[in-house]
Amino acid sequence: MNGMVIIVNEILLYTKQGCPLCEEAKIWIELLKDDYILEFREIDIQSDETLHDKYALEIPVVSVNGEELMFPQLSEVEIRQRLHD
Predict the structure, then answer these.
(1) One Pfam family name from the record (predicted)?
(2) What's the whole-model pTM score?
(3) What does the mean pLDDT of the chain come to?
């Protein structure tokens, strides 16, 4: 092994059906897959009462390596700034 460390970034997208802003955030994340190693999961807040109570008025919420981003700070640039090369 050559000692190279591969960093996998974890991105969670908290969303619900019929959310156009959530779809936009998902497109940003898909575009980032070309530049970063990502583990991406989309989580429907309607499938969990606790998540729904927490994020119902906040979605989309993107968690990048444990740091949550919400509108208005949520953007492709903000996500990119929190990713590890």
Answers:
(1) Glrx-like
(2) 0.84
(3) 89
